[in-house]
Each structure stands twice: as C-alpha cells, then as structure tokens.
Amino acid sequence: MEILGQKKLTLNNGDEYIRLLGIIRPEDINNQNTVQSSRIANAKISYTGAGDIADPSKKGWFSKLIDAVQPL
Fold first, then answer.
1. Is 56 left (phi over 0), alpha (psi -120 to 50) or beta?
2. How confident is the model at residue 49, as a pLDDT?
3. Beta-carbon contacts of residue 43 (< 8 Å; ≥ 6 apart)
C-alpha cells in the first residue's frame, strides 16, 4: 500500500510543510491505525515552505535598514 501524509506548521511569517511518501504492508498497521517509521519502505520526506521565511531572495531587516539610510 502506498501512503502519503502532510503536516502544516504555521510560523510567524509563513507556512512550512513536511510531506511523507512511502510504501507499507497492511500487517504493519497497528490498532491505533499508525505505522512505525522504520516499517515504511522507499520513504521520501520533503520539507517546503511558503511566505517570508521560505524566500531566500528577500532582504533581511538589516539590509532594508542600510538601503533606507544609504540607497546606493
């Protein structure tokens, strides 16, 4: 069986997402309908973000301050 899950974390300046994709066997699902992470085959975990934190090209507050004082 293929599984896919996502967790959204809301931070001060944007949202972050942790995504999991993998393959499990039905017999590895326990009574609480969960699977131990060590039982996930071909696991792919990705971490992405949106908003100010995720945009590395945005200037920080100090760079903005310097540009306001000395706009060259």
1. alpha
2. 79
3. 20, 21, 22, 37
